Amino acid sequence: MLNSKAPVPGGGGASALCGALCAGLAAMVCSLTIGKEKYAAVESNMIHSMSNIVNIQDDLCDCMDADAQAFEPLAKAYKLPKDTPEQAAYKSKVLEEKLHDAAEPPLRICELIMNLYNDIAFVAKNGSRLAVSDAGCAAAMAAAAYRAAALNVYVNTKLMKDREYAEDIERRVKSMSFVVAGYEEIYNNVAKELGA
């Protein structure tokens, strides 16, 4: 449970869950569009988008487990003793390894959220107008999932001693962050369509 003192699940798992929910909403819009005569012209593309979205949703669900599996050893590493020079050196080594491991799942979440963008944009523009609000919700949740996952990358890279490695990961996150503005544009377009 997120409200407990347990180190997992935490923000990384929550960001993956948020992303999986966003993908679920987008897939629902696809389901409500496919098979409708009014949308026959986009049906083949909608089927393709739905397949992509469902595959990414599955990957995001896997990321929830991966984040928990990576963070728990990090939480234990923080508790290692450092009373002697040998203990301090060992703790430093283990912490560095576990920080690297813990940064990977949220980085993967960022990549998956970026990979959802084209399909969510397509669904929002071409999906059933009866479900356009769900497409807008998917976009809003995708932006939130990306931001949350990015923070979970940075909380780990900030403490890494291998600054070259840390800065490379941070560059990768920053290079994908344009997708947040894209999701916000989708949301704003849906809101405008609904008069919100």
Number of helices: 6
Strand content: under 5%
The major β-sheet equals:
none
Overall 3D shape:
elongated
Which quaternary structure do these chains form? single chain
From the helix content, strand content and strand pairing, which structural class follows? mainly alpha
Element-by-element helix/strand order: HHHHHH
The counted number of beta strands is 0
CA-based gyration radius: 20 Å
Mean pLDDT: 94
Instruction: Outline the low-pLDDT stretches.
Output: none
Topology, pairings included?
Layout: H1 11-33, H2 43-78, H3 85-126, H4 132-157, H5 163-176, H6 178-194
Features:
196 residues, mainly alpha, 6 helices
Could you walk me through the main structural features you see in this protein, from its secondary elements to its overall organization?
The protein has helices at residues 11-33, 43-78, 85-126, 132-157, 163-176, 178-194. With 196 residues, the chain is an all-alpha fold. Helix 1 runs parallel beside helix 3, helix 3 (85-126) runs parallel beside helix 5 (163-176) and helix 3 (85-126) packs parallel to helix 6. The chain has 6 helices and no strands. The two termini are 34 Å apart.
